[in-house]
Predict the 3D structure of the following.
Amino acid sequence: MCKIIAMTDSHVAKGNFLNRIDEICQSGVYGLILREKDTTDAEYEWLVRKVLPICERYDTRLILHEHVKVALRLKHPYLHVSMGTLSQMQGKERRAFWMLGASCHSREEVQKAVCFGATYVTLSPIFETACKPLADALGTKVLSDVAKNATIPVIALGGIRVNNVSQVKKSGAEGICVRGEYMTCKDVAWLTRRFTDQWREA
């Protein structure tokens, strides 16, 4: 089964943001990373309280992003952070999460994430992306090497499309993380179905 994790960005989301989150969760994704970079802790916690019931309705894992204090205060089990944040967290804080993800961009960062106690990583960008046009794509060869040697699940991120998800599976990743497509597509259910079908057929 393909672990599909959708990532939010309210700045580019089409239509009502909460309605889109509802559609994403209803489509059957594995998880949703609530990535709203320009929010204060108070604003983020308010948003979490709006989004969490939607995720719970569809048994979707809501993964908080970067706001460590909010996640700890709410005793939320799922958190995703940058490598910088992960390295600054206390061991007690890391152990508070059942699922702790880290954003990695190289083999070396994946190795460090494991040492810091991450339970999974996203590796990016695998393909060229519109949001980070100057970042060099790692490609599926690097993804394959990292996935083969990693001791925790590797989730591919960056430029993931329906027409390249089969390459991701063949590279050994355990799933995909997708932002732009889920924020802007016209038919969320179709997108999740196509990702799932392409993964299964690869």
